[in-house]
Amino acid sequence: MTRILVADDHVVVRAGVRRVLEDLSNYEVVAEAADGKEAIVKAIETKPDVVVLDYALPLMNGSEVTRQIRAQLPRTEVLVFTMHDSEELIEEALKAGARGYLLKSDANRDLIEAVASVAGHRPFFTNKVTDTLLKRYFNGSGQPSSGSILTNRERGVVQLIAEGHSNKQVATVLNISAKTVETHRAAVMRKLNYSSSAALVRYAIRNQLVQA
Q1: How many whole angstroms from its chain centre is CA 156?
Q2: Model-level pTM?
Q3: What range does the domain containing 51 cover?
Q4: Which of 46, 50, 3, 44 is nearest to 22 (CA)?
Q5: Residue-level pLDDT at 86
């Protein structure tokens, strides 16, 4: 029996994934989560074989959730399940340890195959994502891409700020000090050459860290 955790902030998506998978006798959805923090807690509690994980979760993005789950549960595989095919997001998710990346637009065709593949510790990418990865890697010149200008932790800080959290709240969510949050925030502002929180919010929306 393959044990699965479904993490998505939309109830209808969680219910749909559960229904599709539990129609098959060899899959069991052992837990659901509505935000990144809850996804990590539920994963540690239930130790699933596969986490089907939306990238754009509240509190923590998919990359940070993936990194923490993989660090604590190395046998648990992560399938990122999202509407976003951004090159940067795909790269960040894979660097964090995701085994697969499935677009929600491909779910009807590929969800079961994707879960089966990552449950067997094999990678899974739909065709569009594979094409995106190849373009990203070769970058038109045969050379690997240099990746995101921000670190994954900096992206997590930006997401929480854009969601309206104070430095103290960001520190609590990420389990770091408020001073460290301020350091990350200052580094982001310097890298992006921004001078206001409003500019950070626009960056977060533009780069799909939060939903407008």
Answers
A1: 10
A2: 0.73
A3: 2-138
A4: 3
A5: 77
